[in-house]
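Q: Sequence in, structure out?
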Amino acid sequence: MLEFQEKKKIRQFLYSRPTLVIIAVIFVISVNATYRMYQKASETGANRDVAAREEAALAAKKKELESQLSQLKTSRGMEEEIRKKFRVVKEGEGIVIVVDNTKKAAEAAPAEPNFRSLFDRIRNLFK
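A: Exactly. Output:
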């Protein structure tokens, strides 16, 4: 009988209002902590994806820079870079500049109607 009375005391203690409030508070705190950890985990996953993309971009840039560096180590590559940046030529070389005159000629002489030019020609004959 003593055993049943002890179980009854334990049940009364566990089901009392203060105990239930404490258990509810602990439950709310643990749910809140779990939700925060979930948010941090999802944010970390997103940051990991961004970091992986940045790493891939940096690896591609590194590869490109290494190829440019290896090209600059050769005399031909160095010469090309100097010519591109400073517009210099070797002694005895010249520079050829190609100008497209078709657009300038069309802009300089606007097209006149044929009858106008014919009229001007006839007038110039009698002057």
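The chain has one domain: 2-92.
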